[in-house]
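**Reference record**
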Amino acid sequence: EIISTLNLRYQSPSRDMLSNTLIPAWYAVEKENVEKELQDVRDVAVTADGWTSIAQDHYLTVSVHYVREGSMKEKVLHTRA
Protein backbone atom coordinates (compact mmCIF):
# COMPACT_ATOMS: atom_id res chain seq x y z
CA GLU A 1 0.00 0.00 0.00
CA ILE A 2 2.79 2.44 0.81
CA ILE A 3 4.50 1.91 -2.55
CA SER A 4 1.26 2.24 -4.51
CA THR A 5 0.57 5.49 -2.64
CA LEU A 6 3.93 6.83 -3.79
CA ASN A 7 3.48 5.57 -7.36
CA LEU A 8 -0.08 4.87 -8.45
CA ARG A 9 1.10 2.93 -11.52
CA TYR A 10 3.20 0.46 -9.52
CA GLN A 11 1.91 -3.10 -9.40
CA SER A 12 3.58 -5.42 -6.95
CA PRO A 13 4.59 -8.83 -8.33
CA SER A 14 2.26 -11.75 -7.74
CA ARG A 15 3.12 -14.54 -5.33
CA ASP A 16 3.72 -16.89 -8.28
CA MET A 17 6.03 -14.37 -9.98
CA LEU A 18 7.99 -13.93 -6.76
CA SER A 19 8.32 -17.60 -5.88
CA ASN A 20 8.79 -19.02 -9.38
CA THR A 21 10.79 -16.31 -11.15
CA LEU A 22 12.16 -13.42 -9.11
CA ILE A 23 13.45 -15.23 -6.03
CA PRO A 24 15.09 -18.10 -7.98
CA ALA A 25 16.79 -15.57 -10.29
CA TRP A 26 18.02 -13.52 -7.34
CA TYR A 27 19.21 -16.69 -5.58
CA ALA A 28 21.21 -17.80 -8.64
CA VAL A 29 22.94 -14.41 -8.90
CA GLU A 30 23.74 -14.29 -5.17
CA LYS A 31 25.01 -17.88 -5.17
CA GLU A 32 27.38 -17.06 -8.02
CA ASN A 33 28.55 -13.91 -6.21
CA VAL A 34 29.31 -15.87 -3.02
CA GLU A 35 31.17 -18.57 -4.97
CA LYS A 36 33.30 -15.93 -6.71
CA GLU A 37 34.07 -14.14 -3.46
CA LEU A 38 35.06 -17.33 -1.67
CA GLN A 39 37.44 -18.39 -4.47
CA ASP A 40 39.93 -15.75 -3.29
CA VAL A 41 39.60 -16.54 0.42
CA ARG A 42 42.33 -18.69 1.91
CA ASP A 43 40.94 -19.46 5.39
CA VAL A 44 37.33 -19.82 6.51
CA ALA A 45 35.43 -20.87 9.61
CA VAL A 46 32.21 -22.81 9.12
CA THR A 47 29.53 -22.68 11.79
CA ALA A 48 26.23 -24.51 12.25
CA ASP A 49 23.46 -22.95 14.31
CA GLY A 50 20.34 -24.79 15.36
CA TRP A 51 17.31 -22.76 16.37
CA THR A 52 13.57 -23.02 16.89
CA SER A 53 10.95 -20.59 15.60
CA ILE A 54 8.05 -19.24 17.63
CA ALA A 55 5.90 -21.85 15.84
CA GLN A 56 8.25 -24.55 17.22
CA ASP A 57 9.75 -25.33 13.80
CA HIS A 58 13.38 -26.44 14.06
CA TYR A 59 16.03 -25.05 11.72
CA LEU A 60 19.72 -25.53 11.03
CA THR A 61 21.73 -22.75 9.40
CA VAL A 62 25.26 -23.25 8.04
CA SER A 63 27.37 -20.11 7.66
CA VAL A 64 30.89 -19.32 6.55
CA HIS A 65 33.03 -16.61 8.19
CA TYR A 66 36.19 -15.11 6.73
CA VAL A 67 38.33 -11.99 6.46
CA ARG A 68 38.49 -10.17 3.14
CA GLU A 69 40.34 -6.91 2.57
CA GLY A 70 40.73 -6.46 6.33
CA SER A 71 37.03 -6.83 7.11
CA MET A 72 35.21 -9.72 8.75
CA LYS A 73 32.60 -11.19 6.41
CA GLU A 74 29.85 -13.74 6.95
CA LYS A 75 27.62 -15.54 4.46
CA VAL A 76 24.76 -17.92 5.16
CA LEU A 77 25.26 -20.96 2.95
CA HIS A 78 22.10 -22.87 3.76
CA THR A 79 19.15 -23.04 6.12
CA ARG A 80 17.08 -26.19 6.38
CA ALA A 81 13.99 -27.05 8.40
Q: What stands out?
A: The two ends are 32 Å apart (CA to CA).
